[in-house]
Amino acid sequence: MSQTAGAYHEKTSYDRSKMGGHFLDWQNQPETIKRYDGRETVAMPRDMPLPGEDLFSLYEGSCKTRVSNGVFDLEELSRILLLTYTLTSQSRHANGMFYYRSAASAGALYPTEIYVMSHGVGGLDDGIYHFSIYDHSLVRLRDGRFSGDVNRFVNDRASAGMPLAFFLTAIFARSAWKYGNRSYRYHLLDTGHVLENLHLSLKALGHPFENTFDFEDQRVNHLLGLDEEREVALAACRVRGELDSLETFDPLVIEDLSETVKKASQVSPREIEAPLVPAIHHAGYDLKSVETDLKVCNHLGINLKSRIPVFSESRPEPDLPYPEAVFRRRSSRNFVAETLPVSHLYALINVITAKDCGGMDPYAHSICSGILTNNIESLGDGFYLVDEKEARLGLVKPGDFTGAMSRICLDQGWMAGASLHFMFMTHMTSLEEAWGPRGYRYALMTAGLMGERLYLAAAALGLGCCGIGAFYDGEASRLLGLNETSRVLYVVSLGILKSMRKRDALL
Question: Are 63 and 355 in contact (CB under 8 A)?
C-alpha cells in the first residue's frame, strides 16, 4: 500500500508518553561537505560588489520593476551562489573544524545540496555542475546543453535557451543520523530555507526566475547523477535571460554517470536506516495539477473572534543591509521578556506576506500562518492567524500561550521568553486530496521558505530567532484548538535578545 502524507506525519509524530532514548553514533557522523573524487572543478571569484539595499525594501519591491544587467557570466553566478549558500562561521569539534552556513538547518546537519545547469554563461562551459560550498567552486558532472531537457522534465518547452537552472536536493542520511524517520520533515524545511535565499539573490540582482516543486523526479535525479536511495531533488529554479528563445530542441540521450559520482551521495561509512523517508518521498512521484482554490486556513477547525489591523507609522530601520543579514543569520535564543515594538511585528508580517516573484503562489495555499504573541506593544497576548492579503491579524483566542508552547516543544524553556512564536500549519486531508502525497513537499518547503524570511528579518532588525521542528505534535494541535486532521509543521520563535539590551544600554 502506498504511503500517505497523513500516515507518515502521524507515524513520525512525537508523543510525550512514548519518547525513548536516542544515542548518536558519533563514529558514523555524516560528512556535511559533499566531495567528488577526481572530478574537474571550476573556481569562482569571491571578491565582488554585492547589492546594497536593505532587506525590507527588497521584499517590498515589485517583481516587475527590477532590471537585470543582462549579463550571465561566472562572476554573476558566483554572486548568486554566495548570496544563497555560503560558510559563515566555524568552530573546532572533536573531529576537526565544523563550518556553519548562511541558511538555517535542523541540528546543523545541512542536508541540502545545490546543482547548476549552465547554458551560455560567460566563462563557464555548458553543462551540469555541483556547487561545492566548502571552497565556493563548481564540480563538473556533465558537458553539453541541457536546458531543453530541463524544461521537458518540468513539462515546459517554452524557453529552451535559459542560461541557468538550479536544483536543490537533500541527502537523506545527514538528518536521519539524528532524527531518524522524522528527518524527511527537516529535509523539506531546510531545503525551503536555502531556496528562499536563492529567491532573494535572484530578485536582488534583477534576474527573472521561475520556481517549481514539480518535475519528473527520476529523470532529474538521473540528470544530476544522484543515488536516489540516498539523495533526491526537491526543488528546481530556472532563470530566464537574453538567451530565452523558442529554439529547436532535440532531446539528448543522457548517459548514466559513473558509480563514483553516485557514491558521493554516501556521507558516512554506516548510514542510519530510516525506511519511512524514501517511502514517503517516492509516494510523491505522481504529479497532479498544482492549480487549486484550496485555502488551508479555512479547514483548520478554528474560528476568528475579531480582526485586528496591525499598523506602524514607520518601519524600523534595519541594523544590516540585505547581504549582511544573510551572512550574519544565526539561531539565537537568549531571549529577555521585554516589550517588542509593534513596528517590528508589522515588519515581520510584511515579510511573510510579501509578494513572491518566482511563481510560488499556488504552493502558498498549502499552509496557514499563525502567531502566538507575548508582550507586544499595543497588542493583547493571544493566538492569531495572519491575513495573507492584508496587514492584519485574526484573533482566535486571547491569552499568553508562549509558555505552554515552550513545554510542548520538548520543554525548551528558553522559548517562554520569546515575544512571538510564528507557526505554520496545514490540514492533512485537504492537502492530500488536492495534491496527493506530493502536497507534503509543498507544505513543508513553503514553511521553510517562510521560516528563512523570519530568520533574515530578525538578523536585519537585531532580534533573536530560532526555528523549532521538534515538538509533541498532538499537544501542539490541542493547544491551538485545531481539528483532528490539522497539524503544526514548524514553529519559529523571535524576540529581544539579552545582547540587544546590553548594546542599547551602551548607546
Answer: yes
Same domain, 94 and 166: yes
CA distance 190 to 115: 16
What distance separates the 2 farthest-apart alpha carbons in the chain?
66
Let me know if 66 is exposed, middle or buried by CB neighbors in 10 A (0-12, 13-18, 19+): middle
Residues 446 and 409 in one domain: yes
Looking at the structure, do residues 346 and 466 belong to the same domain, yes or no?
Answer: yes
CATH of the domain at 374: 3.40.109.10
- Please give the DSSP secondary-structure letter assigned to residue 14: B
* Same domain for 366 and 267: no
Residue 83 amino acid letter = L
Name the β-bridge partners of 309. 392
Domain for residue 42, yes or no? no
Residues 120 and 142 in one domain: yes
Using 50, 70 and 90 to split pLDDT, how confident is the model at 51? very high
| Cα 473 to Cα 481: distance, rounded to the nearest angstrom | 13
Q: Looking at the structure, tell me whether residues 329 and 390 fall in a common domain.
A: yes
Report if pTM > 0.90: yes
Residue pair 137/42 in contact (Cβ under 8 Å)? The answer is: yes
Record the cell numbers describing residue 352, joined without a space: 511573510
- The neighbouring-strand residues paired with 245 are none
Residue 69: pLDDT band by 50, 70, 90 thresholds? Answer: low
